[in-house]
Design a protein that fits this description.
Layout (H helix, E strand, L loop, with lengths): L1 E5 L5 E5 L10 E2 L9 E4 L4 E7 L5 E7 L3 E2 L3 E3 L8 E6 L2 E7 L5 E7 L2 E2 L3 E3 L9 E2 L2 E2 L7 E5 L5 E5 L4 H31 L12 E2 L2 E2 L9 H10 L30 H9 L1 E5 L8 E7 L6 E5 L6 E5 L3 H5 L8 H8 L5 E5 H7 L15 H15 L5 H12 L4
Antiparallel strand pairs: 1-2, 2-3, 4-5, 5-6, 6-7, 6-8, 9-10, 10-11, 11-12, 11-13, 14-15, 16-17, 18-19, 20-21, 21-22, 23-24
Helix pairs in contact: 2-7, 2-8
Length: about 400
């Protein structure tokens, strides 16, 4: 836990309390700020601090685990009030300030370059928090700032009709029905080992057929045949890889109005609540049985990083086994294919990283059969290859699964 404030001498001050530890003494982080700072946790291992500098400009400093604090940087714009900063998505951060002319100014960091400040005429200077690509509409009188597919930020009217909201709610209920059956399959798998080929992930069958986005997980015999057909060769260099090579994170590739992350949460979570005014797109809370750990977990938007969306076949692994030869469109489709996506415990997902089956398997042994079957299906569908060690690990797990 971190506390930041403006000291009496105008410098930025900090105290923090490590997990299980005690509060540190006061730390002077320097600078010359004229307002209380706005602090935002961006991604795991990073914290950004924004404030109004004594020159009236937006001042920014950030901390990265393993690197330490950056130098202060001054961003364009003359402020009349303290800034509001919001985390939006991995790789992007947005800052909002009220300018001296009363307008809302907005700048954002994507990659390593700050965008030129955009200007919005609004009646109030309070800026709400970003939630999955949309600013809290209450701050803008029923309107929201949204990120379009082309990367532009636009001010849009988000007061959806009752029918539109009802239609989205009905869609979520259908997805919940399928997810509930899939969760039952996981409970069976946990109790009897790998005997069930189904799971809560993409493709689990329900009364209406497979979850939208792909066929169900194959049975063991099918997975063995698919594995035998996969090319086996060494891993290609990771040269040129970055998350950006797979397009904008969680793009709305199915054009249902909701980003992929929220589509997966809507599919995998039960007892969901959604944010009003988003057409049912933004999931605020829910529960699910995590297939990777076997534990029942709760999801809360306020602590979104505790539940993450795993790429069953990691993007980096795919890059090194064929994806670097693909078109941009094919990589975008792969990164957002629900067959390759699974909500799971954040710490477990971080532990997996970009490992293949030779280096990492789910702690829940009862799900390992389904997990490797899903990996094989994804690699077979997209024409990726496996390394010799990966092939042997997949074959070893399949050899222990009932068929």
């Amino acid at each position: 836990m971190d506390l930041f404030w403006r000291g009496a001498d105008g410098t930025l001050r900090q105290r923090f309390k490590p997990a299980g530890g005690s509060w540190t003494v006061e730390i002077n982080l320097g600078g010359a700020i004229a307002s209380q700072p706005s602090v935002v946790s961006w991604v795991l291992g990073r914290v950004d601090v924004f404030a109004r500098g004594v020159d009236g400009r937006l001042a920014h400093r950030w901390f990265v685990t393993g690197t330490g604090w950056s130098a202060w940087e001054s961003l364009d714009g003359v402020l009349s009030a303290s800034p509001s900063a919001a985390a939006w998505a991995p790789g992007r951060i947005d800052a909002f300030v009220r300018a001296t002319d009363g307008s809302l100014r907005h700048t954002w960091l994507a990659g390593s370059t700050w965008a030129a400040a955009a200007r919005y005429q609004v009646r109030r200077d309070r800026v709400g928090a970003f939630v999955d690509g949309a600013l809290d509409g209450g701050a803008l009188g029923g309107r929201s700032l949204r990120l379009r597919d082309d990367g532009a930020v636009v001010l849009v009217d988000t007061r959806a009709s009752e029918r539109a909201l009802s239609d989205r709610a009905a869609t979520l209920e259908r997805m919940a029905s399928r997810s509930a059956l899939a969760m039952t399959a996981v409970v069976i798998a946990v109790s009897v080992g790998c005997s069930s080929p189904a799971g809560p992930g993409p493709g689990a069958a329900g009364p209406g057929g497979p979850v939208p986005g792909g066929p169900g997980t194959p049975d063991g015999a099918t997975a063995v045949r698919e594995l035998d057909a996969l090319p086996v060769k060494g891993r290609a260099p990771k040269t040129g890889y970055s998350r950006a090579r797979y397009g904008r994170a969680w793009a709305d590739v199915d054009h249902n109005g909701c980003d992929t992350r929220n589509d997966v949460l809507a599919r995998d979570l039960q007892q969901r609540t959604v944010r009003a005014g988003t057409g049912g797109c933004v999931i605020l809370s829910g529960t699910f049985t995590d297939p990777y750990t076997g534990r029942v977990l709760g999801f809360s938007k306020s602590m979104a990083s505790a539940v993450q969306i795993d790429h069953v076949v990691a993007l980096s692994d795919a890059w090194q086994t064929g994806a670097q030869q693909w078109s941009d469109d094919r990589r975008l489709a792969f990164a957002n294919d629900p067959r390759n996506l699974q909500a799971t415990d954040g710490a477990t997902n971080q532990q997996k990283g970009d490992a293949d089956a030779a280096s990492w398997l789910p702690p829940n042994r009862g799900y390992r059969c389904t997990y490797v079957e899903r990996q094989i299906t994804v690699k077979s569908t997209y024409g990726l290859w496996v390394t010799p060690a990966e092939h042997d690990a997949l074959a070893r797990i399949l050899g222990s699964c009932p068929r």
